[in-house]
Amino acid sequence: MATDRRKMIIEASTKSFSLFGYKATTMDQVAKLANVGKGTIYTFFKNKEELFEEIISTMVKEMIAEAESVIQPELTFTENVHRALYRLLEFRSQHQLMIKLIQEEREMGTLAVSEMLQHIEDEIIAYLKKKIETAIDKGAIPAADTEITSFLLLKMYIALVSDWEKNHQPLSSEQIAELMEIFLLKGLSQW
Q1: Residue pair 20/51 in contact by the 8 Å Cβ criterion
Q2: Domain residues for 9?
Q3: What pLDDT score was predicted for residue 20?
Q4: Which of 45, 54, 98, 103 is the most exposed place for a label (fewest CB within 10 A)?
Q5: What CA–CA distance (Å, rounded) separates 57 from 10?
Q6: Is 12 exposed, middle or buried (0-12, 13-18, 19+ CB in 10 A)?
Q7: What is the largest CA-CA distance in the chain?
Q8: If residue 125 lies in a helix (H) or strand (E), which one and from where to where?
Q9: What's the CA gap between 116 and 120, in Å, rounded?
Q10: CA end-to-end distance (rounded Å), the chain
Q11: CATH number at residue 86
Q12: How far is it, in rounded angstroms, from Cα 59 to Cα 44?
């Protein structure tokens, strides 16, 4: 029974954060949406911040699962990186909570939201780092600083998928994969 109430609270708070954002969500709203007393929430979570962290942690696990779902062992490292990053950015652009958090950070600069978005980025970079380390160990790519490479992969991918489209014709999935391979994985000397 306690597990059901905890689950209801998490679902209600996810809905509230998705609809109203972090700043505008109150524990009273969450209690109302979960159909529980406000005190019940505090039996599971000490405050709104802890509840928010729980939701973000679950969302990060979902994002990683999405990325893992598109990786195919028979494909090259480059192809799998592209597929995983594409799926992660697709998740970001379609997940209601992520959309609301990005909007809130842009419009209001809420510190807690900025910190959580940074946490999400750090988790994605850590995920990529593990994949790069595995690829280096297998000899699929040359040795390099895995953290910097992960950071650059993510930032370059975001730039090609999102930033480029602001003033240019969108790139196809194939073009993005080719550019990623040329600039990061093969290096300009191979171009």
Answers
A1: no
A2: 1-46
A3: 92
A4: 103
A5: 12
A6: buried
A7: 64
A8: helix 111-137
A9: 6
A10: 61
A11: 1.10.357.10
A12: 19
User: Which tokens is 83 given?
Assistant: 């597929």
- Locate 17 and state its tokens: 């954060």
172 within 8 A of 146, measured Cβ to Cβ: no
Predicted local distance difference test score (pLDDT) of residue 187:
62
Q: What is the pLDDT along the chain (191 residues), one digit of tens a residue?
A: 667 889 999 999 999 999 999 999 999 999 999 999 999 999 999 999 999 999 999 999 999 999 999 999 998 888 888 889 889 888 888 889 988 998 999 999 999 999 999 999 999 999 999 999 998 998 888 888 999 989 988 898 888 888 888 889 988 878 888 888 777 666 644 43
Nearest to 171 by CA among 82, 53, 72: 82
DSSP H or E run through 99: helix 96-108
Q: Are residues 38 and 63 in the same domain?
A: no
If asked whether residues 86 and 168 sit together in one domain, one would say yes
Axis-axis angle for helices 77-94, 111-137 (nearest 10): 160
Residues 93 and 162 in one domain: yes
